[in-house]
Amino acid sequence: MMARPDRSSLDAPGRTSTRQRPTSRDRFGRFTEWVARAMGTPAFLGILTLFCAAWLGWNTLMPESVRFDDAALGFTALTLMLSLQASYAAPLILLAQNRQDDRDRVQIEQDRQRAERNLADTEYLAREIVALRMALEERNAQTVTRDVLRQELRALLADLDDETDGDDRPDTRTGPITTRPRR
Question: Does residue 158 form part of some domain?
């Protein structure tokens, strides 16, 4: 009989679940948000109004033998029911607001980081545009300088041609310069 490997050790792979269950805190948080959303609707107010009207109607209009809350005592049970509902609703709404505040904080931080990245990208692009403009200006300046240099070279070649007109040596080079300077 073979012994089963110990699955509790860290050197053996354990069962992995493809679906993770939400934590009970997260589940409760979603519940509080659902309660807060539900209590803030006109439907909830309508249902609560109908409930109170039915309660008051039943305990006022029905025979005394079937009434369960006495109007003479100020509908004590109804008051207790509404107080119980309010005592649970207020903390649940506050918990939902806290969760919303946490989400808002995370969203604000993400927006701030996004804004920083956008600013950095904009600054980088601005530097690149400046570099391109400078390169274009330099290129344009070089074009003018090249033209000036060409004119100067032509003038120097013309001077050299004038000086070497009396030279008897043959020119062995090919190209635009046909004379060789004396040494």
Answer: no
